Amino acid sequence: STAASVVRPCWISTLEPYNGMWHLSENGKPRGQFDAIVIAHN
Fold first, then answer.
1. Domain containing 42: what range?
2. Which helix (H) or strand (E) holds 22?
3. Is residue 4 domain-resident?
4. Partners of 18 in the beta sheet?
5. Structural domain contains residue 21
6. Would the pTM of this model clear 0.85, i.e. be above it?
7. CA distance 1 to 4
8. Does residue 41 sit within a domain?
């Protein structure tokens, strides 16, 4: 099993809360479900 996957940077266009998780998508393409998210801007 893999603890984490590394993916090229992508633009997350949608954050949706669902059943205590955050569902992320990029222009309609699912990008994963997470317990917590961090938003950073430089």
1. 11-42
2. strand 21-26
3. no
4. 21
5. yes
6. no
7. 9
8. yes
